[in-house]
Amino acid sequence: MPYITTYKKAGYIAVTFISTIAILIVFSLDPIEQNPEYHEFVDQRIFFGIPNFWNVISNLPFLLVGGLGLYSIYYSKKIALINEFKIAYSLFFLGVSMVAVGSSYYHLLPSNETLVWDRLPLTIAFMSLFSIVISEFTFPKLGKILLWPLIMVGAYSVYYWLITERQHAGDLRLYFLVQFLPVLVIPLMLLLFKPTFTNNKGYWLLLLAYVLAKLLEYFDAHIYNVLFFISGHSIKHIAAAFGVYLLLLSYNDREKA
């Protein structure tokens, strides 16, 4: 027992240290403006009267997997979760579903103004998942306490970015922190804390899918030049949604540890 207590304390220290360093590094940087070239996706083909067709349609898997998640929570009830924290799991899958709508709208009319509706549901999904992992790997009450503050910080990061962009002083630093801090901290929690449930490989698979999605986004044009029929950004949507689906499968195939 003393060993476990000491080990757990070491986990808290590691998570706190990494989080603090990440925050200090991000806010030591100069404000980060949105690159206007971000909106210039390589695949701008029109099919059936829909501009940027594949970047729009490839968001459909988010709607499907988000809906499946909500179905698993409220109808099939096969999903293993912390019952008293059902709201966080619901918000996560709802956020994933909303990504389909927000991202589709953005890709129909790419601009900073429409990008807000892509990023806002992403922050809901990110922050809900972060609070879920905190609850499952540290204390359930801690995740419940942090859920709404995390979501408000996520939403504010998008609002702050948009306001600063309108003032010609765009600043994405807080949004970057909201998006990438969980990616740094969640693996530490998976490694250093005792899980509430068995079969937590879904979290690792989702993280891998997220990294893959970022690579696909970065090599958008390169992939399109090789494949011709679809771009990296379109495949990015599919890869990210598939990562959520793998997480859902693990949720449906686990039990109390």
CATH topology: Rhopdopsin 7-helix transmembrane proteins
SS content category: mainly alpha
Strand fraction: under 5%
Number of strands: 0
Q: Low-confidence parts lasting 5 or more residues at pLDDT below 50?
A: none
Number of helices: 10
Question: Which percent bin holds the helix content?
Answer: over 70%
What's the architecture in CATH terms?
A: Up-down Bundle
Mean pLDDT: 92
Shape: globular
N-to-C series of helices and strands: HHHHHHHHHH
Largest sheet report? none
CATH hierarchy, class: Mainly Alpha
Q: Quickly count the domains.
A: 1
Radius of gyration: 19 Å
Spatial separation of the terminal alpha carbons = 17 Å
Description:
The chain is mostly helical. Helix content is 74%, strand content 0%. It is built from 10 helices and no strands. It has helices at 2-28, 53-57, 60-76, 86-108, 112-137, 140-166, 173-192, 201-218, 220-227, 232-251. The longest helix has 27 residues, at 2-28. It starts with a helix and ends in a 6-residue tail after the last helix.
Topology overview:
Blueprint: H1 2-28, H2 53-57, H3 60-76, H4 86-108, H5 112-137, H6 140-166, H7 173-192, H8 201-218, H9 220-227, H10 232-251
Helix pairs in contact: 1-7, 3-4, 3-10, 4-5, 5-6, 5-7, 6-7, 8-10
